[in-house]
């Protein structure tokens, strides 16, 4: 039983060490109230109440890993500015190792400023440079990353398409990790997945999968399989995990697939759920769990965070509690004669024209 296996892991006191390489950002919030329009233009006047700064981008994955109890190292690029300093300060305060973060004098730290009146977002301002890193900076960063890669249990790439993951640098990272028997799991971005060739696992969402595979609509399981087949051919990855928002997720290898329906009874906000999924998969893979177990646990973690507004995190104890609650629900369904199989929880139109079903790995 998964809860027993998690309990055994907790009793060892061991913590996996995970390297997150990615696009580091600051989410800057300007929050106030608005009750009148400006006389200068037809826009609301916001009376400022407070401003907050939190980690964004790859920082969301980092915070999920920290909440789960992992030891985390981070690699990436920041600007030589106050927001870059803020990002490293927040990370260090969380106990995260930041030795592999470099400063680029030629680009700002990415900042996304959101102006809110109450809970209503009026405007977003992006401060960023998305061009590729210079060859010199790529080489310097790779040298910085090498000792971190050899020191960790697993490598996680969080790509937000901000210029960090050039094809050359991405392949260097994956190749070096593979040489040292470190699995690489990736949250992808962009249209060219060939740069992820050799990764162990790639986790796109429905929209990202369709765009990368040039499949216009991902509406059914057959669509997911068709698009995934194209990505397998491009990347030779072992697994593709597709997050499907309120429908759950699909876990695919070249020959098998498994559907994991969403386990939440209420869905308030799927923002950041993909980060939770990838962090949870990485955590449990690096702790010796099988891929299907790690994905099942990630599905429970996602069910917890999508009940919250905005990006949220979860803990191991919360995941265990959620599993037990689901087991109680399944037992109730069994005694009442209801079928609660994973396939049954997906709408019929999603399952039509799917390939042969093979659920075991």
Tell me briefly what this model is.
The protein is α/β, with parallel strands linked by helices. The protein contains 11 helices and 13 strands.
Describe this structure in words.
The protein has 361 residues and is of the alpha/beta class. The protein has one domain (2-24, 57-105, 129-351): UDP-N-acetylmuramoyl-L-alanine:D-glutamate ligase (3-Layer(aba) Sandwich). It has eleven helices and 13 strands. The strands form two sheets. A nine-stranded mixed β-sheet has the order 5-4-1-8-9-10-11-12-13, sandwiched between helices. Helix 4 runs parallel beside helix 5, helix 6 crosses helix 7 (221-235) and helix 9 (291-305) crosses helix 10 (316-335). The longest helix has 20 residues, at 316-335. The radius of gyration is 21 Å and the shape is globular. Mean pLDDT is 87; it is low at 331-341 and 353-361.
List keywords for this structure.
nine-stranded mixed beta sheet; 13 strands; 361 residues; UDP-N-acetylmuramoyl-L-alanine:D-glutamate ligase; disordered C terminus; globular; four-stranded mixed beta sheet; alpha/beta; 11 helices
Overall domain count: 1
How far apart lie the N and C ends? 17 Å
The biggest beta sheet, please?
9 strands, mixed
Stretches with pLDDT under 50, minimum 5 residues: 331-341, 353-361
Structural class: alpha/beta
User: What is the overall pLDDT average?
Assistant: 87
The name of the CATH architecture is 3-Layer(aba) Sandwich
Q: CATH superfamily, called what?
A: Ribokinase
The residue fraction in helices comes out at 25-40%
Taken in chain order, the helices and strands follow as HEEEHEHEEEHEHEEHHEEEHHHH
Choose one word for the global shape.
globular
Which strand order do you get reading across the main beta sheet? Answer: 5-4-1-8-9-10-11-12-13
Number of helices: 11
Number of strands: 13
The CATH topology = UDP-N-acetylmuramoyl-L-alanine:D-glutamate ligase
Residue fraction in strands: 15-25%
Would you state the CATH class? Alpha Beta
CA-based gyration radius = 21 Å
